[in-house]
Amino acid sequence: MEWYLPVIWAAVIGAAVALYVILDGFDLGIGILFPFAREDKERDQLIASIAPFWDGNETWLVLGGGGLWVAFPRAYAVIMPALYLPVIVMLLGLIFRGVAFEFRTVAVTSKKYWTFAFAAGSTLAAFCQGLILGGIIQGIKIEDGVFAGGAFDFATPFAALCGLGVTTGYALLGACWLVMKTEGAVADRAREHAKILLIAVLAFMAVVSLWTPLQFSRIRARWFSVPNILFLWPVPLITALTALMAWRWLEQGRSIRPFFAAIVLFMLGYAGLAISVSPYLVPYSMTIWDAAAAPASQIFMLLGTLPLLPIILMYTGFVYYLFRGKVREGESYH
Question: What is the mean pLDDT of each run of 10 residues along the chain (334 residues)?
Fold first, then answer.
């Protein structure tokens, strides 16, 4: 087997997941923050800030899931049965928020119900994504290459902690997005929310960073053995410095920098998890090479995927450039 093909596909899927977390993370965060808006006109402003972007952001979830199915079918066949429940609930949450997004704009008498559906769907989807992450990190029971556990094996305190952490992190991204994209009372309140959420995210990151090496010996060895620790110690240091700069920029009234600091925090956490479990797709039972499809299948799909990626990225960048600037109260892209 060509050893480099699974590495290329792992990089493609990893990039797709990272882009999904960043791009769909902030618009899920808008939904999570929905209950904290004081009236409908503020909620309308929140919706308007993500109206041109939210649907396209979910493209990367399709690429991540589809790429896993195509390139690593053995891992897909193990992960999906182990995590069917949170995956199905997550998809239902995304469907509800998508429908609510469109219907809320035109609803009159039922607007409050669609408001609830948008907030609940966003929060549920975010929490389930954290459950999925926690379920993968803690490991999946495999016998003879197939899932051998129960439907609720994922439901552990560690997975619930990851669910709360991801939900809080998305809310931080959403708050920093509002600081960047809105003005007036919405932006001021978002700035205060962002400070609280920043502290909460750091607390979750600290707990997970302590929990994983204490509970999982392989992660402890990966981070604290010599010479690994000599190369990896800058990761928590850079995380702390990024959080400090984010706080300072929020205090100084900056608009754009806190959002990018929140993105860097997410990517540092993502990198830390990747360092902890790589090269395993199913910790600690199945590596990317164990799970890989036949080389011919991987090459065939890469021939379609790699040319399309720059096109999607350019289109995404163009949309964000086209709809740049702040959304003021009463403004809309409709």
Answer: 86 92 91 89 88 83 88 92 94 91 82 90 95 91 86 91 96 95 90 95 93 88 87 90 95 92 94 90 89 91 90 90 81 58
User: One-letter amino acid identity for 148?
Assistant: A
Bond prior to 279 in cis (omega within 30° of 0): yes
Whether pTM exceeds 0.90: yes
Length of the chain: 334
Residues 6+ apart with CB under 8 A from 316: 23, 56
**330 domain-assigned:** no
- 16 part of a folded domain: yes
SS3 327: strand
CB of 151 closer than 8 Å to CB of 194: no
Other beta carbons less than 10 A from residue 77's beta carbon: 14
In a domain, 328, yes or no: no
